[in-house]
Amino acid sequence: MSETIAQNKALAHRIYDEMWNKANPAVANEIFANPEGVQKAVSLFLAAFPDLRHTVEGMVAENDLVTIRFSASGTHTGQWKEFAPSGKPIHYTGVTLARIERGKIVDHHTWWDTMEVIEQITKETK
User: Fold this and answer.
1) Alpha-carbon span 19 to 13, nearest angstrom
2) CATH code of the region 3-122
3) Partner of 49 for a Cys bridge, out of 8, 17, 67, 74, CB 3.0 to 4.6 A?
4) What is this structure's pTM?
5) Are 94 and 110 in contact (CB under 8 A)?
6) What are phi and psi of 60, to 5 degrees?
7) Contact in structure between 109 and 97 (CB atoms under 8 Å)
C-alpha cells in the first residue's frame, strides 16, 4: 500500500474515532476542507444520541478515494428532528465515500437508512 493511500485511510478513520466516538465535532476542522456543515450535523445528531458509537467494519482506498463501511449504535435520549427522546436503542449501518486532496476530505457522501432509525425510535413496545 502506498504511503498516500495509508494516510488517506487514516484520515478517513478519524471521522469515526475522533469526531463521532470521542464526540468531538470540532475535529472536522482538521479532517474536512469545508467543515461547517459537518460540525453542525454531527453536533445535532450527538445531542440526540450522545452515547453513539461507530465501528469501522471495512475500508477500501484507491488513488484519492476512500470507501468506509460502518455500523453505529446508541440510545435516543435527546430531540432528533421532530422526534422527542424515546430512550430506545438504535443500530444502523452505512457507507461513506470520501475524496481526499492535500490531506483533507474535499468531497464526501454518506448513505445510511434514516427510516430504519425512525422506525426503531417510534416502534411501539409490547
Assistant:
1) 10
2) 3.10.450.50
3) 74
4) 0.92
5) yes
6) -130, 135
7) yes
